[in-house]
Amino acid sequence: MLLVDADAARRSATRDLLRQLGARLLEAPDAATARLCLESASPDFVLRAWPLEGALSATDLQWRDACGEALPCGVLLPDASTAGAKAAAEFGAFAILQQPLAAGPLLAFVQAAHALAQLLRQSARERARFERLESEAGIGTFDYDSGTERLRLSAGALRICGLEAGAAELDAVALLGAFENRARQKLYTWLEVLRAGRVPTPCELELDMPGHVLRRLRFCACTPTTGWLQLMPERVTAILDGGDRSVYDGATGLPERAQFAELIAQHATRASLHRSKIALLCLEIRSADQTGPAPDGLLVAVARRVRNCLRDGDVLARLPARGELQVGLGRIEGDALGIELEVQHTHDAASVARRLIDLLSEPFSFGGQPHRLDVHVGIAICPDDTQEAGTLITLADEAARHAHERNAGRIEYWSPALNASSFQRLELERHLQEALDAGQLQLHYQPKVQIASGAVTGFEALLRWRHPQLGMISPAQFIPIAEESGLIVPIGRWVIEEACRQIRAWQDRGHRVRIAVNVSLLQFRDGGLYDTIVRALADAGADPELLELELTESLLMDDKDAAIAILHRLKGHGLRIAIDDFGTGYSSLAYLKRFPIDSLKIDQSFVRGLSTNPDEAAIATSIILMGRSLKLNVIAEGVETKSQLAFLRVMQCNEGQGYLYSPALPAEEATTYLEQSKRDRSAA
Questions:
Q1: For residues 575 and 568, what is the distance between their CA atoms, to the nearest angstrom?
Q2: Minimal CA–CA distance to 124: which of 158, 97, 155?
Q3: pLDDT tier at 544 (50, 70, 90 boundaries)?
Q4: Closest residue by Cα to residue 50 from 42, 34, 61
Q5: 8 A C-beta contact, residue 229 and residue 139
Q6: What integer pLDDT is reported at residue 330 of this predicted model?
Q7: Which of 57, 158, 279, 368 would bridge 163 by S-S if both were Cys, CB 3.0 to 4.6 A apart?
């Protein structure tokens, strides 16, 4: 640790405390001396006193070690100065400590700062690895800020565009300056779509490099704010420019097996950068009305129907129903088509396959006659089944043949283990849709209790599913399926409506208690969330102040500026906002200050080890101290033991939630719990 403090007496007292904790210390009386220390040593973090040399500024909290990596910086205040704490928080201090220092808070700071320093160094190693992979794959990434119209390019993107390494952040005009004439106009039009908040189709253009080298680039957007660049291989460029087209099928215009394998190999490299997988779907297509392979004309109609549900032509596109899946389409055999998907989870491929079978189940009109098809889908996964593109096609083809032998409309993975789990997931997804329509879903309510007084302050609404044949189905089973299938949006709408009805029911009984509902990423992105909430509150006649939204840290950090705008709109209607699972997303204190939030919920993984794991106790302590400094309500979830409760009471955590108080209860039992709690407190 590097301690920067002009007061020798304070440095001595802090030194003694740190030595008791086992920390090694570098000392400096001023910032200039401290920065000299950094050139010869590599501390894990910095603690600097304030004031030190005049007013505190953002640059005073920016420290880097000898390797140039950022270091966490805490601020040591001489007294309980609210203004000082606010200034330090606004400038992005990792933690704020006050004199006189106590061993407990200092230990919590040391442990949390050391853990963050390790994460930062690991992040630096991953960043270096990512840059090596970018270089080898000829790929780069970018982020676009529509507010400032500036782009942040990765090292690979800068290299592809022939830009200086120091130009990582630049405006759109500067990027356009690297291109000439038609290419510049084409890129300008592409950027205009981003500026409008939409996802443009991929854009291919040429860039003249020094030495008369012509480079073909491909710009693709994943969202209106993120995307990637690809340096197109010369062999593919020649084909796209009208060279040898023998690798494309004459009837459908799709790539044949060899070209398809080459494209899969390129996309597999990109998928490894995204930490995702490549799933290859082989669609074996046969006529249900005649024997033998489907005729070419019918395959053209099939390819057209499949292509119409993709966003981007023959080779790369998106499936609208799946939002973020990158796809490629190719012809494998005379009666088989292949679709390549970039997926995060292997079971996503089966969901897409089921939608394709449904899409192709409608009869085709060919030769003046209706034609019905038998479609079987085989699935192989890269890198799970193989890392070789040609072998991947063969395995998917073989899986499709197995599917045909067993039953029409069958989906088969090459891996037998995946077949069983895929079938179960598809069945559960079908049952879940029926459950929403048949009223099988319920809300149970888990109390939130004020730790100091024992008063019930509110409830969290938790979703439960009781199937008439299967019984109670765990949320751990059906919530991921709801999110991946998109059902979480209508389910989330029902949860909000039901919670508002319960708020009104308790209001009518004289109870003003808050109900918190969880909001998923898909719900938050859905443009109708605000209208859904306003309408549900109005329909139920519920007080908006009694509805609280719980959002995860990672959800808010997904698109920070958009999240801030949405939260301000919701806050303006009177709702309360809580960050759920806090401590798992590593968001900065500076961004935390920008979010209009009321509460932090300490993730239960940290609460679980309060009395046994010093690291988790340190993180929980840091969150409580941070919440208090920002005047936020701090809630500990997963409180199960009296020792955990005792720790939280000593640290002055505001509220607790967990089995020590009560499990989640049906509405009637939750009402009884609430009223009994009030009677007990009145009697006391």
A1: 10
A2: 155
A3: very high
A4: 61
A5: yes
A6: 61
A7: 158
Range 258-290 burial, b when 16+ CB lie within 10 A, else e: ebbbbbbbbbbbbbbbeebbbbbbbbbbbbeee
How many Cα atoms sit within 13 Å of 264 on the Cβ side?
A: 33
Angle 614-629/103-137 helices, nearest 10 degrees?
Answer: 100
DSSP string, 428-489: HHHHHHHHHHHT-EEEEEEEEEETTT--EEEEEEEEEEEETTTEEE-HHHHHHHHHHHTTHH
DSSP code at position 310: S
- Which tokens is 129 given? 């690895």
Which of 387, 395, 438 minimizes the C-alpha distance to 418? 395
Beta bridge partners, 218, equal: 204, 230
Of 522, 516, 622, nearest in space to 577 by CA:
516
SS (H, E, C) 505-547: HHHHCCCCCEEEEECCHHHHHCCCHHHHHHHHHHHHCCCHHHE
- Distance CA(415)–CA(200), nearest Å, equals 36
Q: Which residue has the tokens 């890129």?
A: 187
CB-based contacts of 301: which residues, under 8 Å, 6+ apart?
364, 366
**Cα dihedral across residues 320, 325, 326, 330: positive or negative:** negative
Residue 603's CB is within 10 A of a number of other CB atoms, namely 23
Q: What is the pLDDT of residue 638?
A: 93
Q: Euclidean distance between the first and final Cα of the chain, in Å?
A: 50
Cβ neighbours, 10 Å, residue 653: 25
How many other C-beta atoms are found inside a 10 Å radius of the C-beta of residue 559? 18
Residue 29: CB atoms within 10 A of its CB come to 16
Residue 460 has pLDDT above 80, yes or no: yes
Q: Is the dihedral of CA 41, 45, 49, 51 positive or negative?
A: positive
Say which residue, 418 or 360, is predicted with more confidence: 360
Higher pLDDT, residue 419 or 234: 419
Q: Which residue has the tokens 């063969």?
A: 394
Among 313, 324, 328, 344, which Cα is nearest to 223's? 324
Element (H, E) at 330: strand 326-333
Confidence of residue 541 (pLDDT cuts 50, 70, 90): very high
Alpha helices in 138-154 (DSSP H): none
Residue 239 has what pLDDT?
31
**Distance of alpha carbon 646 from alpha carbon 610, whole angstroms:** 10
Confidence of residue 71 (pLDDT cuts 50, 70, 90): confident
Can you read off the two tokens belonging to residue 567? Answer: 């939260």
In angstroms, the CA 447 to CA 458 distance is: 6
Q: Radius of gyration (Cα) for the chain, nearest Å?
A: 29
Cα separation, 155 vs 168, in Å, equals 7
pLDDT digits (tens, 9 = 90+) for 279-315: 888 888 777 766 555 555 667 677 767 765 553 432 3
Quote the CA–CA distance of 459 and 449 in Å, as a whole number: 9
Handedness of CA 502, 507, 511, 513 (dihedral sign): positive
What strand order describes the sheet that includes 150-153?
A: 169-171, 150-153, 139-145, 226-231, 213-223, 203-209
> What pLDDT does residue 509 have?
93
Give the total residue count for the chain. 684
